[in-house]
Amino acid sequence: MSADPPVIVIPHHRRADLLRLALDAVADQHVILVDDSPKGCGARPGPRLQVVRTAGSTGFARAANAGLRAAQAAGWDRALLLNDDAVPAPGCVAALAAAWRPKDGALGPVLIDPEGA
To answer: Over the stretch 11-45, which tens digit does the pLDDT of each residue have?
Structure first.
């Protein structure tokens, strides 16, 4: 069992304003941003940010798979797949990492909409 944080994989298509909120929420984590936007979002790689560009508009599943392949190629054995319009609550990634057990194939957080439901 490891409490090491997973890499965060964020497929992105359209809403740069929401993407910025998601990226800010996981700024202390390693992130693979999959740019699936039609014209490119202009994101630049950084110390904790890897950018993978698709052909554009390939769809969420293909973009997610491209990000997961990049994570695997970089040596990550765990990844948190995050929609580009989702903002993890403080401590969410650490809590998921702490709950992870070797037999677990996948874990997911509780999703709460803006109204609290």
So the answer is: 999 888 888 899 999 989 999 999 999 999 989 99
Cβ(23)–Cβ(48) below 8 Å: no
Please tell me whether residue 101 adopts helix, strand or coil conformation. Answer: coil
Pure H helices in 10-59: 16-25
Q: The tokens of 21 are what?
A: 């909120």
Q: Is 92 left (phi over 0), alpha (psi -120 to 50) or beta?
A: alpha
Query: What tokens were used for 59?
Result: 């769809």
Q: What global pTM score does this model have?
A: 0.90
Please report, for the chain, how many H helices and E strands are present, in that order: 3, 4
* Nearest of 72, 78, 74 to residue 101 by alpha carbon: 78
Q: What angle do CA 111, 112, 116 make, to 5 degrees?
A: 165
- 5-43: burial string, b at 16+ Cβ within 10 Å, e else: bbbbbbbbbeeeeebeebbebbeebbbbbbbbbeeebeb
